[in-house]
Design goal:
alpha/beta; Nucleotidyltransferase, domain 5; Aspartate Aminotransferase, domain 1; five-stranded mixed sheet; 13 helices
Length: 373
C-alpha cells in the first residue's frame, strides 16, 4: 500500500486473532479485508505476516492511517497483549510506519467503537462495549476519546463475578472471562446478562447517566433478539438517578474500523513543530517524542519527506536527482530530521490541561538538552 493524493482513507484493526483493514472514503467499512494472524510464537515473525498481507494490496490511500489495537501500547511499544504475551516490548508503531511509509495514529479498539456510537450531547459520557473474541470498551467525552490515565482503560477486564472464570489476564471474574465462557457453552445467557448488567451498574456509578452501546457478537450471535437483550439488561440494572441509557450499537460488526475512519477525518489536523536548539539531532527528537508519548501526549515523529522514502525511488520525478530535491526542499529535510506533530486535540483543552501539556513539553526539551551535555 502507498500514500498518495487520494480521498481514500486507510483503517486497520489488529485484534486478538485477526488483522483487518479497509480503504474507504466513507464512514463505514462493510467488507474489510481480513487475515488470521498466525501463531508463530514470535512478534517479529507474526508482524512480518501482517506486513506481507499489506504489501500484496497496491491501492493508494491519503491522510494518516489509523490502527485500532487490541494490545495495550506505551510509547509506541506493546505493553501487554494477553493472547500473545511474547509481543511485549515490540515497537509496533515504528514497525507499521516503516511498512506503510507514513505516520500512523494508534487508537484502542474499544475507543474506536465508542467514537462510532457517540452522540452529539456534551453533558454525558458515551461508552461502547464491543464483544468480539474478547471484550473491548471505550469512553467518549464531549466528542473525543476520554483519556482517563496514561494507558487505555480496560473495560473488558473489570471484575463482574469474583467467583467466575479465570481470565487470560490472570484475574478471576473479568467480564471478558464470562463472555468467553458463554461462547464456549460454560455460561448460560441469563448468567451472562447478570454479569454484563453488573458491569453497567459499575460504569453508571463512575459516569452517572452515561449512554452505553452494546455491539459485536453479543448482538449478532442469535442467542436472543436485540430487544430481548435490552429488556433483560434494563430489568437487571433498574432505574435510579445514576442509571445508564442502554442501546445497541449502530455498527454491530465493524465498529472499530468505522471508528478509525471517523478519527482519520480529523487526523490530518496536526500541529507541527521541531527541536530548534543548536545541534538538535534526530536522536534528540526521538528521545523527546518518546518521553511525551509515555506521558500520554498525542505526539508522533515527523516522517521524512516523500523523496527520501524507498517508494519514491521506484518512481522518481522526471529530471530531478535526489541531490536537487534536497537542495530544493531544505525545510522538508530539516523537519523530517528533527520535527514532530502533535494532534490538535491536545490543544483543544481547558487552561489547566494546556498548562500541563506545555510544562511536559518544556521538561522533555530540558531533559534532552541535559543529556547532550
Amino acid at each position: 500500500m502507498k500514500v498518495g493524493p487520494s480521498d481514500q482513507r486507510l483503517a486497520l484493526d489488529l485484534g486478538a486473532t485477526k488483522f483487518a483493514y479497509c480503504v474507504s472514503g466513507g464512514r463505514t467499512a462493510w467488507q474489510p479485508s481480513v487475515k488470521q494472524i498466525p501463531w508463530l510464537g514470535s512478534a517479529e515473525n507474526e508482524f512480518a505476516a501482517i506486513a506481507e498481507f499489506l504489501d500484496e494490496d497496491h491501492r493508494v490511500f491519503g491522510g494518516v492511517p489509523v490502527i485500532c489495537v487490541a494490545p495495550t501500547l506505551q510509547a509506541g511499544r506493546v505493553l501487554s497483549w494477553p493472547n500473545r504475551s511474547y509481543w511485549g516490548g515490540f515497537p509496533l508503531m515504528d514497525a507499521l510506519q516503516s511498512v506503510l511509509e507514513s505516520p500512523v495514529v494508534a487508537l484502542a479498539d474499544g475507543a474506536a467503537a465508542a467514537l462510532v456510537d457517540a452522540g452529539p450531547r456534551n453533558d454525558v459520557h458515551y461508552i461502547s462495549l464491543f464483544f468480539g473474541t474478547g471484550v473491548a470498551g471505550g469512553v467518549v467525552d464531549d466528542g473525543d476519546v476520554a483519556q482517563l490515565g496514561p494507558l487505555n482503560p480496560e473495560l473488558g477486564h473489570i471484575v463482574t463475578n469474583p467467583h467466575g472464570e479465570i481470565c487470560v489476564c490472570g484475574r478471576r471474574g473479568c467480564i471478558q472471562a464470562g463472555w468467553i465462557a458463554f461462547q464456549d457453552g460454560r455460561l448460560s445467557f441469563g448468567d451472562l446478562v447478570r454479569e454484563v448488567g453488573a458491569l453497567l451498574v459499575t460504569l453508571s456509578r463512575m459516569f452517572p447517566r452515561c449512554v452505553v452501546s452494546l455491539g459485536g457478537r453479543l448482538v449478532t450471535g442469535g442467542t436472543a433478539t436485540g430487544e430481548q437483550l435490552l429488556s433483560d439488561l434494563r430489568n437487571f440494572v433498574g432505574h435510579d438517578a445514576w442509571s445508564p441509557e442502554i442501546r445497541l450499537s449502530g455498527e454491530v460488526s465493524n465498529a472499530p474500523l468505522a471508528g478509525a475512519l471517523l478519527l482519520d477525518r480529523e487526523s490530518g489536523y496536526l500541529v507541527q513543530g521541531r527541536l530548534a536548539f543548536p545541534g538538535a539531532s534526530t536522536s534528540d527528537r526521538d528521545q523527546f517524542v518518546s518521553a511525551l508519548q509515555a506521558a500520554g501526549v498525542p505526539i508522533n515523529r515527523a516522517y521524512p519527506p516523500l523523496f527520501e522514502l524507498p517508494a519514491y525511488g521506484r518512481t522518481p520525478e522526471p529530471g530531478a536527482t535526489f541531490e536537487q530535491l534536497v537542495e530544493r526542499c531544505p525545510n522538508a529535510v530539516l523537519i523530517g530530521q528533527t520535527g514532530f506533530s502533535i494532534h490538535h486535540r491536545a490543544l483543544l483543552s481547558g487552561p489547566d490541561d494546556l498548562q500541563r501539556v506545555a510544562q511536559m513539553i518544556d521538561e522533555a526539551v530540558q531533559s534532552v538538552r541535559k543529556n547532550r551535555q
